[in-house]
Amino acid sequence: MLQNDTITAIATAPGAGGVGIIRISGENALEIAEKISHKSPKPRLATYAEFYDGENLLDEGLILFFPNPKSFTGEDVIELQAHGGSVILNMLLKTVIKQGARQALPGEFSQRAFLNGKIDLVQAEAIADLISSSTEQAAIAAQRSLQGEFSGKINQILRQLIELRVWIEAAIDFPEEEIDFLADKEQQQKMMQLHRDLDQLLQKAQQGQLLNKGVVIAIVGQPNVGKSSLLNLFTRNETAIVSDIAGTTRDIVKENIHIQGIPVTIIDTAGIHITEDKIEQEGIKRAKEILQQADIILQVIDSSRDVELQIENLQDLPFNRRKIIIYNKSDIGKVEKGLADNEVILSAKTQSGFEKLEEKVIQMLSHQSQIETSFSARTRHITQLQKTLENISVAENNFLNNQAGELVAEDLRQAQEHLNQITGEFTSDDLLGEIFSSFCIGK
Question: Is the pTM of the predicted complex or chain greater than 0.70?
Fold first, then answer.
């Protein structure tokens, strides 16, 4: 990718609108705008102009000029604000390209902002997360990351880590100074504090990932226990067909909902039982695959039938996620035992107990107080934080057990590299390409 050429793209969403924006960035941005408008726009002032392709008038609108380095990309940036029809915007875009600009790649404006030091990698990703956010809480969390909250916490931990590295490596490089860092109680406390702070940051980032990525909830049980009725309660709609005939649901039924601002994909699966029906067998196979992917499993039991037998028949399923057991049909059945924390009595028919079930689901998803202060985070951030925590744990163990200073220093060095991967301090070109290629064209 050339960094000294001039790029352009339509910056507004596809479709008709009152205003559409063509964004131009690069050393020739101002010259191109002057050729098209026959005017010289002043910095940071809206300039009315007519837009021409040669002698042909295309449209009229406003020009905004942001000189480098005080622009989004750090380069000269022009925004042409025209009428928002897709035809006129594409005509104007072709004219800009004819004058020497190149069609921008997806995310190239944000990538230039990153490469020119205007934003770090976390902030760049937050732009995409803000655009794609599906709930208000997700948008607020993305805005926090965009404003540098996540990056600030990373940099704070980096400063703690670097202070420890400096101390330890000084003791290694200058043995004549007789610095016994392994016995230094103050440094031990700093190491343990670093571990605690990093662990807290990881937990908070996982909350942010929850808002960004969402969770999968799978409803599982034998045929005709009320799984589809439960799905309809969550969606507040007749999403799934409800019937007294066992095996009505033969395939998975998905629906996207929001619970306390968290995006949730809730899935109704085929009733699990022994059957000779090939279609049912395929549905049951898919249900078991969904169980492997789900973050939370809702296991539905018909309380009007043999409860223990139903639990026994499903005990070999891969319940390797958080699970809530739901004793359904309480309007015609009865549960003769005390309830565990992850169990609830429900009547999907009368909706009795559904509010309690929702509370338990919310508890499993997260605590609301944490969500309200979350910042946006992605899977790659979580992965790097987990690797950092592993290195810090090993370093702390070596530190407290008087192992060689070189071992401690190496673990701290690796931890620092993982943190730098998050903000983009040291990041491969392949990773940058993967991240920015998922952005909108005009971003």
Answer: yes
